[in-house]
Structure formats: C-alpha cells, structure tokens
Amino acid sequence: MSQVFDVELVGVTKRFGATVAVDQIDLRIPKATYCCLLGPSGCGKTTLLRMLAGHETPTEGDILIGGHNVSLLPPAKRGTAMMFQSYALFPHLNAVDNVAFSLKMRGVGKAERQEKARRYLELTHMTKYAERLPSQLSGGQQQRVALARALITNPSVLLLDEPLSALDPFLRGKMRDELKRLQTELAISFIHVTHSQEEALALADLAVVMDGGRIQQAASPRDLFDKPRTAFVARFIGGQNVLPAPGSNGLDRGEIAVRTDRCHLVAPDEATPAASLLGSITGIEYQGSRVQITLSIDGAREAISLLPDDAYFAKPFKIGERARIAWSEGDVHQLSAP
User: Are 281 and 319 in contact (CB under 8 A)?
Assistant: First the structure.
C-alpha cells in the first residue's frame, strides 16, 4: 500500500502575468511533520503557502492533502487552518470569543463553543487570560490566542505565515518551544513560512530552501547545515565557507563548503598538513563562547573561522594581520553546480 502524505505538491506553478512566482514545485510532506519553507524575499514561499491555504489557485499542477486533490477547493473545504502574521484578532472580542468565532459561524451553541475554546486556550497556556481583550494582551499572548483559534477547527495541516516575526528575540525563543510542543502533541503537520535560518533549524523536521520560485534543497536541518547541495544553500543557511575547490591537473573542480567552526587560523609561515588559503584579517567579533574572525582572500572572497574563545585568546590575531585559514580534508563538502 502506497504511503499517504499529509501534503503533496505535483508540478505546482503559479504565474502572475509574465512573472513566475512558483515554478514546477514537487514536494512531499510526510504525516505529522514540522516543515519550514524558507528563502529570501520574493523566493515564492508565501505564494506557495497561500496556494496550500486556497487563497491562490495554481496555474499548473496539483495540491493533495491527505491524498485528496484540493487544488480547486475553497479554503474551508481543505482541512487546513492558517495563522496569519498579523494575528487578525477581533479587537472587540475577548480571548474566548476570538477562539470560538469560527464555531459560532458554523452554528455551534454558545455554551458548547466556549467550552471548546477554553480547552484550546488551556492547550496554549492562556486559560487565565480568557476574558481579556486583545489590547490587554502582550504580543506573545495574542499569538497564543490566534494559534488556539486556528487549531479549534481540528485541521489536518496548520499553515503559519511568519508567525514569530513580530516578537522580540526572547519571546521568539519561547514561542518556538511552544510551537514545537503543540505540533508534537497534536501529531499534525505544521507548514511554517520564515525568512529566519535559525528558526527553521530549530523547528523543522523538513526544511525547504527556495529561491527564484524553485526548491533548491529539501532536507532535515542537519543535512542542510552539514551537506548543502549548492553554494546558494550553503550561503543562505550560513555557518559555511564557500571556497574554490583545489584544482586537479589544472582543471576547475567547482566549489566546496567547509563549516566555519571546522576552520582554524595559523600564521602564514606555519606548517600545516591541512588544506589552507592565505588572506588578511578584516574583522574580529567576540561572541561570548566563541570569536568570529573574517578574512579577505585575495580581495575577492571572504572566509570565516569560528574559534572557541579560549583558543582565540590563547593566541589572538589582529585586524590587518596576514593568516592562513585551514581545514581538514574530512570536513570538505563538495557543492553541486546550481
């Protein structure tokens, strides 16, 4: 028996006039998966989310949810719920009534819908704020109400459009934990659009990097970080130096990626068995437990060495100093052409 995925995209394309926003996307999202769509502005990730929600119709291709083709169905018939970036809470309704609103529209009685709304407020740790208006809630609390309102419809897939972007860094960290806890407890798929690499690495079971309307790589966060497929993915995810591959018999072998924390610095004349490149130090940034050192390689390319703080301060470098950035051959990852 073939596996039924929570979401399948088959050749999905979206054009706006002459502009191709999403270009021939094929993607399978297994059951109960936390999937993050990420990429630079204009890469097509939000358009893809809107097509999943039913707010846009594909120009070509099919969208399947739970094995059923929903490409032409309205949002309410898809088994999805969407949590918007703005939260879009009704300012005149308290938290309970905001969460219960969709049930009211379906004709559910007041007592029943409020009882269910309180259960979802409890699930999102908002019980004691049930009677408050949105204006009486913090940004993080408003987000929890919006999340409860999306979940009360019992969706098979929850769609999230940059849900953490309006929060300060401390609250973003707390809400990441909350989102992952809820997704695990509910055992449904979350599809979360973000431009934050850190967010995607922290949350996703499956991270999908997009650029130019296409998927550049879809993999686990660890594989994306350790084994980026292309130079674009390596640079976008970060934590990697993209360097010219050593030539073989004078032939160009393309580019390699080496994690910045696997690179170390040595003096220009110091013997090293590892591969290395000579450069000039252009930046030194203390980051607490580590120090980031940036080198200019022949004025045309940058490379970074991320050193433990004790290693750096035992043998510090200075801006303007020449140094070699070195790495072990076992830490090299060969990149594919785009």
Answer: yes
> What is the per-residue pLDDT across 295-310, written as a single tens digit (0 to 9) for each?
999 877 899 999 999 9
CATH assignment of 242-334, given 1.20.1530.20, 3.40.50.2300, 2.60.40.10, 2.40.50.100? 2.40.50.100
Beta bridge partners of 240: 259
The model carries a pTM of 0.90
**165-191 core/surface letters (b: 16 or more CB in 10 A; e: else):** eebeeebbeebbebbbebbeeeebbbb
Q: What is the pLDDT of residues 308-331, one digit of tens each?
A: 999 999 999 999 999 999 999 899
Residues 6+ apart with CB under 8 A from 337: 230, 254
Structure tokens of 141?
Answer: 């609390």
Mapped onto helix, strand or coil, the DSSP state of residue 140 is: helix
> What is each CA distance from 145 to 87, 96, 125, 200, in whole angstroms?
8, 8, 9, 23
∠ CA 197-203-7, nearest 5°, is 100
Rounded Cα distance, 230 and 237, in Å: 11
CB 48 within 8 A of CB 192: no
Say what the alpha-carbon torsion angle 246, 266, 298, 287 is, to the nearest 10 degrees: 110
d(CA 88, CA 244): 48
CATH number of 7-234: 3.40.50.300
Amino acid at the residue 264: H
How far is Cα 253 from Cα 142, in angstroms, rounded to an integer?
Answer: 52
Running DSSP on this structure, what letter comes out for residue 57? -
Per domain, the residue ranges of the chain are 7-234, 242-334
The tokens describing 300, both together, are 């045309």
Backbone angles phi, psi at 140, to 5 degrees: -65, -35
